Amino acid sequence: MEEQRKQVIFSAIQPSGTITLGNYLGALKNWVALQDEYDCIFSLADLHTITVRQDPAKFRKNALEAYALLLACGIDPQKSIFFIQSHVSAHAELAWVLNCYTQFGELSRMTQFKDKSAKHADNINAGLFAYPSLMAADILLYQADLVPVGADQKQHLELTRDIAERFNAAYSPTFTVPDGYIPKQGARVMSLQDPTSKMSKSDENANGFIAMLDSPDVIMKKFKRAVTDSDACVRYAEGKDGVNNLMGIYACVTGKTMDEIEREFEGRGYGDFKTAVGEAVVDHLRPIQERFSQYIADKAYLESCYRDGAARASRIANRTLSKVMKKIGFLPD
Ligand code: ATP
Ligand code: LTN
Hints:
The protein has helices at 21-34, 46-49, 56-73, 90-99, 104-108, 111-119, 126-141, 154-170, 216-224, 241-254, 258-264, 270-296, 299-328; strands spanning 8-13, 39-44, 81-84, 146-148, 179-181. By secondary structure, the chain is mainly α. A three-stranded parallel β-sheet has the order 1-2-3. Helix 3 packs across helix 12 (270-296), helix 4 (90-99) packs parallel to helix 13 (299-328) and helix 9 (216-224) packs antiparallel against helix 12 (270-296). It is globular. The structure holds adenosine-5'-triphosphate (ATP) and L-tryptophanamide.
């Protein structure tokens, strides 16, 4: 029997700071689960990260730690290709080309651009604006069928599809038009301090996020301080953003349903509930933190992994890039 080609998955995360529980539940946990069924390609999107000013020493440290943390979460370099974006030059090259197939109006409508330019009003650079065409290049280089991301990236994916369709229509079928793959549970983990905005690793208030490497003490403290409401009832309902968020996190790490959680905490106050959520998260993160300490101590292994990943990724990416250059009409070198 002829073996069927596995579908290709591509996704990436920025090493823009310490990776949070939101990144993990919204994205990373799914990546790990998809590795057996799909041909997976995962990347650290470090070119995206410099759209916001970075301190060089911190940036280097964040990137290496993020690489080690993803391995610790279960990204398996034997099963998947796992590389660092800036090590594969095709990303920057295709991004330039796609910039010329992306409209100013389209980029202006991106909510992430609007949010980030409000947050970094002193540095609204062209890279921040063109961020989505680099992201489109990431995905299209690998002819990805599916892109697992949190709900906040939906708009960027739709733009990627539009760019791919536009290019295919202008020349001939070149890019696979990708679909999003957004989890039902955990797609949008909210800040513990402001449950109306997403948990973000670049949040200035560290109490708003749980970092994957936070110690058990810190995790318990952050959950205890989490914003809830005055209703004092563990119930999933409209208007109860803080409690809904905590219930979502608890459901993700324990596998319990919302009904089960409501029953578990019937007649009990938020204090008990927050302690239970904190403990469940600590337990869930413990083995990941232990593996992280082992990986980060072995720099030679990390280097060999990301070099091998970049070599494998480059072969695929360069194939797509040459096709694109040829179709546009660049003289071959
Ligand atoms: P930054 O704060 O620097 O913009 P970020 O925390 O939003 O970063 P990214 O690197 O941009 O993280 O995103 C990595 C992945 O994590 C993406 O798939 C994104 O959808 C997902 N993600 C980010 N924040 C959350 C969240 N709060 N809930 C669920 N998924 C999330
Ligand atoms: N913009 C993404 C990170 C990212 C990405 C990608 C995700 C960069 N390139 C390609 C999926 C596919 C984010 O999650 N903020």
